[in-house]
Amino acid sequence: MFSTLRFAVFLPGLAPMLVAATAFQVTIDPAPVERAAQVVSIALPQALAAGAVLRDDRGQIVPLQAEADLTARFIVARQAANQALTFTLEAGRLPDQGNVQVMEEPSPARPGNTPGIASATAPSRIQAKSGRLRVSVGGRPILYYQMDPDAAPREGIDPALHRAGYLHPVLTPRGMTVTEDYPTGNLTQHGIAPLGPENSHLDFGGIDNTWTGPVHGGFTSWQRWIDDKAADRPVLINEAWELTAYAVPKLLGEINVFDLVITQTNATAGLLNYRRGLGAQGPTVWAEPDRSLPFWEVQGDGGFYWTGFSGRTKDDATGMAVLLPSPANSFAERPQMNRLEVLSPSKGRSELPSGARSTQRCRVVVFDGALELPLLEALWNGYTLPAVVTIAPAAGR
Question: CA 208 → CA 21, 211, 240, 345, 384, distances in Å?
Answer without folding.
Answer: 39, 11, 10, 28, 27
